[in-house]
Amino acid sequence: MEVDQLMTVVPDVVRAKVAKVSHMEKPQPTVFDIVAWYEPSAHFKYTRGVRKAFEEMAREYTKSTLLLGRFGGRPVMQTDIQGIGVATRVEIGRLSLFKGHQQALIKGVFDMFRDCMGRELVSGPLERMAIHFSKADSRGSVRDSIRQAFSEAFGEECSFLAPDVDQPDYLLVGHSVDYQTLIQYLSEDSLYHSAHRGRIEKVSRHLNQEVGRYEKHRFHVVPVRADGGIPALSFCYTGEEPDRRVEAFMEGYTGERLSFVERDSFQAERHRYLGLKDYERASRRFGGLWILQSDMARFLSQLEVGSLYLFLDEDLRPEMGRVFTWEELFARQISSSRIDPASRNSQTFLEIVLESLACKHFISEEGDGFRLDEEFGRYQHVTFYELGEFRKK
Amino acid sequence: MHDNWLKRVYAIVAPYRGRLVISMVTLLGLTGLGIYSPVWASRLVGEALPNLDKRLFIQCVVYLFAIQLASSGLSYVYSFQMRILGGRVVFDLRRRMYDHLQRLSLGFYESRSSGEIISRMMNDVNAITSLVTGTALNTLVSSCKALVLLCVLYHFSPKVTWIALTILPLHFLGYFFFQARISHISWKSSEKVSQIYGKVSEVVGAMKMVKSHSGEIRESRALITQLRESYDINLYSGNLTNIWGHATSNISHLGTVVVTVVCGYAVLDDGMTLQQYILLLSYVAMLYAPVAELIGVVQQILPAKVGIRRVFEIMDLAPEVVDPPDGIRDTIRGKVEFANVGFAYSSGDQVLEGVSFIANPGETVAFVGPSGSGKTTIINLIARFYDRGVGQILIDGRDIQEYSLRALRDQMSIVLQETHLFRGTIFDNIRYGKPDAPIEEIERAAELANAHEFIGTLPDTYRTLIGANGIRLSGGQRQRIAIARALIRNPRILILDEATSALDTVSESKVQEAFVRLMRDRTTFVVAHRLSTIKNADKIVVLEEGQVVQMGDHDELIDQDGLYRELYDPEWAKERKRLRDERIEQLAVSNITAIGPPKAARWRSTN
Prior knowledge:
The complex is a heterodimer. Chain A is of the alpha+beta class. Chain A has 15 helices and 15 strands. In chain A, β8 (232-239), α9 and β9 (258-262) form a beta-alpha-beta unit. The longest helix of chain A is centred in the first third of the chain and has 20 residues, at 99-118. The N and C termini of chain A lie far apart (70 Å). Chain B has a six-stranded mixed sheet, sandwiched between helices. In chain B, strands 2-1-4-5 form a four-stranded antiparallel sheet, with helices on one face. In chain B, strands 7-8 form a two-stranded antiparallel sheet. Chain A binds chain B through residues 45-46, 67, 69-72, 78-81, 83, 86, 166, 201, 205, 222, 234, 236, 241-242, 244-245, 247-249, 252-253, 259-262, 265, 272, 284, 286-288, 302, 342, and chain B through 1, 176-177, 180-181, 183-184, 188, 191, 195-196, 198-199, 202, 221-222, 225-226, 229, 233, 342, 344, 348, 350, 389-390, 401, 545, 580-581, 583-585, 587-588, 591-592, 598, 600, 602-607.
């Protein structure tokens, strides 16, 4: 008897159940190994008392240890010597068989990391966090669960960093500060422009030199887009009340006129005001870049950034959809001013960079050629901060 | 690490493949003898004794003794070859790693503790050796042994073979349960040992500081904590390995029990002979032995893999500064040109931006500026400890990166603030700059460095030992030996990085005299905080936040209202700042009084 014939004689309820079972995916076990590092302290002592208290706390968070990866289901605390400081590290592994359970499972771990700080069992505030599970850099839905768990546990959004293309199972958890799209960066066509770097650096330097004078206020910039040209930039400050001396000293030493912004209006239009450090970082035209691809940050070295220009036209617009042959790219590389003179004539250099860009999903291979990734237009230029760095920012 | 780690390990062993083959043949011989032995044992018990066959009995005993003798001989040959192979692999690996470490750039050493590097070079290399000498061959031999035994057993009884094989999946379960945990714990163990090495080397190096701050007890406690953690990790690791070992053994015993029962019933009910019974049981026990050995091999491979990863992690690091294979080796005249040079360390912040200057042959160029202005970075770029990010650095009109690194550094000498003298004689320390220098040249260099006089007063003059167990020298004396060491190289480019800042006035004057002689006819770069020492420089480059803000000689710069004068004459700078602040304050106040009391709205942004 054919299946269809069989289905005609079974009641609807049974049929529905059969259909559900036949479409149900086999649950794949995912082993999450999670590690948290805490800030080092020269005064932290890993005493018997701390060990005991941690053991007690660990019992609350322990789950069955069967097949739970490298760290087992039981939390373990260890220390790392960092110069004269001692940093604590808490490790735990959890197994998830069902997709719906992952979020709660991971949240439990995040809660424990927070609890360690609350009970003062660790050397300092949470500094870094890493998470390891199979094919982490390509499993967006699992990462979503982790992000939601992080958001519930810490009350803030997080993003991930894949520190090494050779380790697709390993992610760092942190925060990304968004500046502009990658395309805007490449064509220097946004609010961030390197022409203002000198002014920013001058003001920052002066603020660092005269900390006491400016400590009651916070300083920001307001970039305003100009048609087809360099954006205009003005400096402002905010605080309890305006201070004429602050303005006069800043103008006297840096030549920059400050305008005062009241706290309320500053908060109301927070997005308009940019920190000096952020502007400085976003307008850099040297060194590598952090690029956010959805929720995953990847680092592009200076050499890789230079090679991305091979896929842009003369007006610095990305040639989306165009498939470049290796020969075309090499011809462009030879004449490119964005690539280091020592590497321009190197075929090996081009091969290495193309392989790396493809691994990081900036370009994709199509037949014998290469093209920009379909999502390239959505990639964001960001700075990725690990948890501790972000807190100190 | 590259995935093909086995290939890489083989590449290390490849030069000794002859010995490897001998070892393999010996081991196979040993295995063969081991398999052959039960045949005679079973004949002895099952055939000679029941049939009262004396001839066969003697023959069995002689054969068993001969097998034992042959095994012992082969075993000696095997151990001897392994010892040689292991020793050579350790030697080669450590030599390669040390050579590689010498080629790595300064950035590498700035980011790792010496203890960690030593730990990788000594401990982790040993792990590879144990893999090569013990594990790899055992894997092959155990696999072969298991295969042969399986065939032999199948030949005698296919049914017993299948029964014996049914318990093998349990071994796989054990593997999946333990392997990730043991790998990870091995990594932690290696890391912990590195940290302990690092801690000890740091504390021993800073013992004066530790004692002066009464930090002995604190440091002891810190190390005890680390040792205790290391103990815990090793205990846990040992426990895991132990449990796995016992689990393996019990699984094998389970198999043997099942086979014993099945064969026992066969003897009782189906007329199996006692000889067959003993033979089958022996082979089943022997079949499980290589399986257990293979599990043991895996237990050894897991920590060894960690060692391999840690060693190759260093070996795979490419030096940031690359020496061109066909680099220029010409003698240089000493013209150095920076053209719009920019540089950023890997941390991201730009240290130099648009730095340009020219130093002609024989000129003295001084770099001054506040801390963090980029002076030492420029020196590091001239010595090619790092490569520039953007712009060009030219030496005699050719890019610095076109020169052979060694040829370039052979024509440079550097005197740093902290003088490092090696443990040895003064003679050897000065000759470090030029190993083939005759004694006359060494004495001449010492004379020019104002060191000859004080060396003559030492008990063994130039052969006096310095450093540990040797004589103690003052800062000035050490610095003058360092100058002699620099001088003996007769460099075309001389770099003095804060070379006198740690000296008292009397020592400094003697060192300065030596410098005057040292700098003659050489392109000299000087970094100094005491500006009195660079007054005579042909060119002074004033740096601020990585940029050149002033350039000229002392007379030109001192007349300008700029950073150089601020640094040279702090009193003037303080007074100028005071006046400027007053003026700004007056302007601010007058503005306020002119427009009335401050109103927030007046300064509010219109944005």
